[in-house]
Amino acid sequence: MARLIRTEKEVEGHYTEQWIVxxxxxxxxxxxxxxxxxxxxxxxxxGRERARGEATYTADIQLPGMLHAAVLRSxxxxxxxxxxxxxxxxxxxxxxxxxxxxxxxVLTDEPGxxxxxxxxxxxxxxxxxxxxxxxxxxxxxxxxxxxxxDQAVEKGSLVSEPNVSxxxxxxxxxxxxxxxxxxxxxxxxxxHNSLETHQAVCVWESGRLDVxxxxxxxxxxxxxxxxxxxxxxxxxxxxCNFMGGGFGSKNGPGEYTFIAAELARRTGRPVRCALxxxxxxxxxxxxxxxxxxxxxxxxSDGTLTxxxxxxxxxxxxxxxxxxTGGPMExxxxxxxxxxxxHGAKLNTPPNAAFRAPxxxxxxxxxxxxxxxxxxxxxxxxxxxxxxxxxxSDLVDGRPFSSKNLLECYRRxxxxxxRREEVRxxxxxxxxxxxxxxxxxxxxGGGPPSYAWVRVGSDGRVxxxxxxxxxxxxxxxxxxxxxxxxxxxxxxRIEVSLGDTSRGPFASISAGSSTIPSxxxxxxxxxxxxxxxIVEIAAQRYHLEERVLSLRNGHIVSADGGSWPxxxxxxxxxxxxxxGKGARGPNPTGMRTLTFGVQLAEVAVDIETGEVLVDRIxxxxxxxxxxxxxxxxxxxxxxxxxxxxxTLSEDRLLDPGTGTVLTQTLDAYKLPTIADVPEIVAEFxxxxxxHLTNLGSKGLGEPPIIPTSAAIANAIRxxxxxxxxxxxxxxxxxxxxxxxxxxxxxxxxxAETVGEVxxx
Amino acid sequence: xxxxxxxxxxGSYPLAAAVGRTLxxxxxxxxxxxxxxxxCGEGHCGACTVLLDxxxxxxxxxxxxxxxxxxxxxxxxxxxHPLVASFVRAxxxxxxxxxxxxxxSAAALVAAIPSPTREEVRHAMSGNLxxxxxxxxxxxxxxxxxx
Amino acid sequence: xxxxxPESPEAAASSLGNGSVALAGGTDLVxxxxxxxxxxxxxxxLRDVVxxxxxxxxxxxxTTLAELEVDPELPQALREACAASASPQLRSMGTIxxxxxxxxxxxxxxxxxxxxxxxxxxxxARQGTHREHAIFGNDRCASAHPSDPAAALxxxxxxxxxxxxxxxxxxxxxxxxxxxxxxxxxxxxELILELxxxxxxxxxxxxxxxxxxxSFALVGVAAARFGAETRLALAGVAPVPWLLxxxxxxxxxxxxxxxxxKVEIARALVRRALASLPTT
Lengths: 759, 147, 280
Fold this sequence. Notes:
Chain A is of the alpha+beta class.
């Protein structure tokens, strides 16, 4: 029976109350630990298609008569278009249509950042479209850009009101402290650089719009496009079968979809609008840079008395101010906490969600600060964290639906015990050390999400839901869940996803929510199908339903009977068994979070500033793990992105003009295979007994969160240098080493060189 | 217009392409061989890697007219290579967009060095960027490709 | 655009200029054509006419970096410099002749700022973002030369044979002047054909990068010892490959605020390079 209930939905820390309709779902959670299929390693079900180059990504969609769009973007960080003439563009070879400001809401004649879309063209080939754009006659009035985030805060140039929250009394917390550390941390702007660039192909047919798009949220694209173009949502079909990475930057339709849609409408032809790598690095979002001015105070036994954070997020021209102070509010049992977040509106490209936005940056600051405090108190960093363990959410006093961070710390201890041995490897200019950092993040997902399960007469199963697999292995995890519930082997399950016209509503693949949102719906649908199979079998074999169950491809009865499942399904002929399922509500009044700890071993060459990460151990608590193989891949991927964030990636601007200088992948340095350390991934793997019929939380984001702080803390352990600014390039490392030497009065003046970078 | 013939995966294709057209464009758009991906378009990421006479080559910055009589091998020509199975087995791919290029580079490596060391894998594969960070398992897949 | 396969190196050379551009590995040229950094009506394809391969210390200019990297006949510094260059695919495609002539990675130049090297009146990097830029020879243009093999060849005292002349590799390069903003002394219709590389008693190439592979040198140091003499050359520190008279010449460098760290790295790498060369 359908029930109408009021529930809470959380997306990246924001809770909203909403009504949802759920079906009865009386499923008990499976027992903990590896089952038949769930909890056991499974290679991806679509791995072969992808590896053989057979998978069709949006980039591979080729439709008859398809035109290609190119976008004229502002070369200036802040400017006005005084005049724009596209007549030569329209006359150029192959050109079919042009768009200018006014033709689409995504085009502007007052660009506020380098890369803002101004005009667009559709031509027979991309080369023609691009060549034609060079013919555009634009007269710019170039204006002074605002690039300095502190200045923006001072002037009140903010994207939203400052977010200030306080608990307890921080002044009292400071006065009660026996040790106080204050430090300023900085993190840089980081670019997503999914290998498939942002792109869409739009086709109009009989007033209906098909959108092929590389996206993390089919239904979000559908809703936004329908609303903007004033179409009934069912007139918009959104397709994404295979997707070449998103990391948070592909949650919405983006300007390219609207450009393609409008050009397609005007030409009556399919239009692709695919960004180049350089456009990707200008106009598709970024992890914004931050300035974090932090204070921590504690009693001599390590009990925190105060945490204070003043954060400036360099949001850019548009975007939102992420919760950089979130980790400070959530991670420790500190009574007096004050967090103030300012989102600076600047003439720089807008930010976008990037794998745990805010928390990656904020954890760097907080967890480095904790180690600086530990050093001041002469306490073991792991001990300091355990002493301040939070048993409940102190933000609003809620109990956690589950929390196994202490277990993570316990499992960290044997690794942490290697510290002396690691330090002892130091030789000559190479100093070795070890550091750790904790992780807290959301990842509980929520309703609504739906799935259908179709069982054919051949005893094969198709899971149908209009979700997307952004490369995280969602297809495989959903297949495992259905296989487990139906007692079938994995090779009998297909997962049909990626098309809003071919399945029910499914949630976004963001906020570490795919498994916790979709998994329970798939299990519920599979259970519905299983129940029907059992009902039919009961009639066929003249047994009671309650003595029958599905196991190993068979219907088995309590008294030892066993029949291949096909014996029942083949009765169906062309008929099918259709199961449907929905994601149930989240536990009321509880806080669902993910936790973890990472330990890094590094080597630092104190003469050249080179930092090598030798080993990272990651121990995460994300509830039940569906696919340990895919989960370890997620952890490795998050850590490797974290290493790029820590050591080499930096979106650089020209300080005078606000021009983005690092648009290409030679200048913007992603980690290569040669940069990867040994990575050890462990999971607590205990189902969250309050969360859904699975007890699983999400894992996409947690692994990237503690990496930078763990590495920076290992560097401090190795060298005594406080690195407080990311990325830890050669110059930053050498600067920090110099500052450490000065602090210790050991500065060898003969070797002094000029200040590399102001602190 | 210049006319040429292109040898791809053992087949031969008459070719009419404007000078300046890249091998990647020709493979993907003219021959429909979309297994070869273009991710940066300027030779920085390795997604477009194909073999020319067995040598890993960036098809996005190779003008098709320079190919001449060299044999082009794309992922479509390596679909039965044991590396495909070893990549899947090791979970050496996430979104999979870089994977064809990874496998093409790895195929050249194991043709030259059938049992490469991890260091050799890292040296030979460092031009194939993977943003998902499947590297540890890519290394594993290449080292164990004969299993 | 036309595509030409010349019959001989001389024919190739003589057809260059006036919109005709030489194309070898294409790793630098093809992207620059697309970006409008180079304009061409005609591409003169060198693959079939420029010598390729290594024979008794002579290297064909058409030899790829990947081929040089594994040639046991060559001095260690050159092999190491090739192995540390770019990415495996770029090494497989790029020729040593092209590598010596590659353009700077300076982002201002690549993004077509009207900078000194493009004929403008100032270097945007000097006042701008310049952490990858020069510490020597940087008063007019602060770009950094990206070639690792060039530094190795400079330390090794290699000589070039072109279609017109023979010259030391040092003479291939020049700093830009008011009148002439070129960074090489090659005539427009002149092609590098071969390199003659002396065999040192010992040599080495060390490179500091932002990541462990596929990155242009922040600082590259080549050292080659011939008898009692040791020659040092640096990559990534000046608009051209830079010969370092002696280690203390580093104290005469003119770093920018954001490149001072390169002096510190260069000191350490020079010291290590010298220490690593066995003495007889």
